[in-house]
């Protein structure tokens, strides 16, 4: 059954849309809302009469706006039923099928990738960046360290968090994964040890492996870090680097406190280990008031720390931008490693991100509100439909790290894919195997999709719990982010 959206809800979402002329402004506002997912696909829009009253505009304004939506491919009329949202080219244009299981269809709910749709304001940022772009067209367009205006924005964000940073300490990259690869290439040699948390973000550890380093796991428990054990691992292995996620750790969601960071910094100093702090989720504090009271960056406690940041989780994955913040003494080494991989990130997207960061106080709170709605819907649904699965509710981040009653994580995710929902099992996040009692469920889809996904997971769990495993046949799974 298709979903509905009320005229009052549409009026709230479009807000004070441009009215010169009004039908164009309304159509453009609706197109952006449909495109970024705030109005979902296959949703029935309010009737022209209802929306006319809610917006206090003429009937002709709404009629012409709906005509523009249909002509541009963002709506379709169904005889006797009304006007329904769509996107040009259908769902396959909006979602990369490479991230889906091989047997996936249009009804698959993909929760393998923990990333949200674009936040409000992105289209306007692209439009403003278009005005800025001509100033860069007279040069070659290569910025191995980043476009200066974006370097300055990122540096200012660290200044505001208590870590004085010069723009020259910033290297903009094509995503956080590229940043991890550059750091690994710059600071490790074949056979050198790198401590990594387990569970952890698997794509980053793969980047470290590609550099030839040997991974040494340090366990992160469901209740948090065991810093005494981590310190012992550092003493016993004398690693070159330690790849850590202190801010809403992926996948557990843990947040390391300031005293813990201070203790960790002392342990790193004793073994002369360089910390690589992945802050991809740092801006995603969801507990009220926490965004303004986050712990200091690890670099505040350990000045030699190399920090990795990302636009993908706090803004939009389609920007494909990340960055490295490092001591000035490390920048030449990073630059030499970087030019062996690429010569810089796209200029246009850097201008877009600079614009978004300038307006972060407008963009991020709205983004966090969407994530809170998703998290709360998912928490309630798992508690209702999978009552024997354990979890703790993180104060931020993007996912629930669920503990199953038995080591059947891989089995249930394989069975779940046949029910039309894709999630990642615990072993994907393990450095040396294990963790099959766990499943990661991101809350980055719309709340109604998360509820439906949980129902499907519950059906899959019933099959697996009854038979001790999934049905024969192994669906493919390509990427976890």
Would you write up a description of this structure?
With 481 residues, the chain is of the alpha/beta class. It has helices at 7-14, 22-35, 48-55, 59-71, 91-94, 122-132, 148-160, 176-187, 202-210, 227-237, 258-271, 298-301, 328-338, 347-358, 360-385, 409-418, 447-467; strands at residues 3-4, 43-44, 75-78, 82-85, 109-110, 170-173, 193-198, 214-221, 224-225, 241-244, 274-278, 306-310, 322-325, 399-403, 421-422, 424-425, 438-442. The strands form five sheets. An eight-stranded mixed beta sheet has the order 6-13-12-11-10-7-8-9, with helices on both faces. It has a three-stranded antiparallel beta sheet with strand order 14-17-16, covered by helices on one side. The longest helix is centred in the C-terminal third of the chain and has 26 residues, at 360-385. The model is unreliable at 92-104 (pLDDT under 50).
